[in-house]
Amino acid sequence: MKELLFLLSDLWLMATCWYFGIKMFRTYRNHLLTLEWLVVAVSSTNFLLWALLGGDESSPMYNLAYALDAFSRSFGITLILVIGLLRVTHGYKPPVWVEVGATALAVAGAVLFGPIHSDTLNHDDGQAVALATFYVVANLLTAVFLMYFAWRLAKIGATRLAVLTAAVTALASYVAITYDFFPFSFDDDARTIFYTLALTTWGAQSVIYFYGYRALHDHNVATGTESNRAVGVAR
Hints:
It comes from Nocardioides antri. This protein has helices at residues 2-28, 31-52, 60-89, 96-113, 126-155, 159-181, 192-223, 225-234. By secondary structure, it is mostly helical. It has a single domain (1-223), classed as Rhopdopsin 7-helix transmembrane proteins (Up-down Bundle), CATH 1.20.1070.
């Protein structure tokens, strides 16, 4: 049963990130959010294939899984997400150099941090502890912005979305803290229960943040905020 739930949670993450990543690009041309959604989509697809093919730790897919995980946890679901959401919270459309720079940071995070991270944190390994701490701090700082994002949704009357955004953000932060520092004592060696919770949460984030983005975008268009900002930039 646990293995089936894990499989379903990964399929959920794959489906939501592929669908909403492509939809984000087609509907809003938000390159950064599209990039992060699709990186998670590729990561979850790779993770599922690796597991179905036997879960060999010597497989290149195993190393790729950690690299993609590092991409998102370092600067993907943190810096890239915040810059992408600024488009509807503050009318900020990042120039190409900002998009390239944020992407380069995330790629660097994947290359540098991917080989360091371990599923079982060795507290005697200062480098691994420092990286795990960085991931948690980055997540919590991003959560502060996401709570602001939820407040903005509440302010325009999207109360349900605001509550869902705050709830899934809090749950994602719990997952981030648990990831390295507080493994479930009742879990198995493969951490099946934890990963089921994590994959389900990350999939929910992609759905809820997309609809939150859409609600603020539509509100900005309806109130003329988008036009006013554009005029202000032109001036």
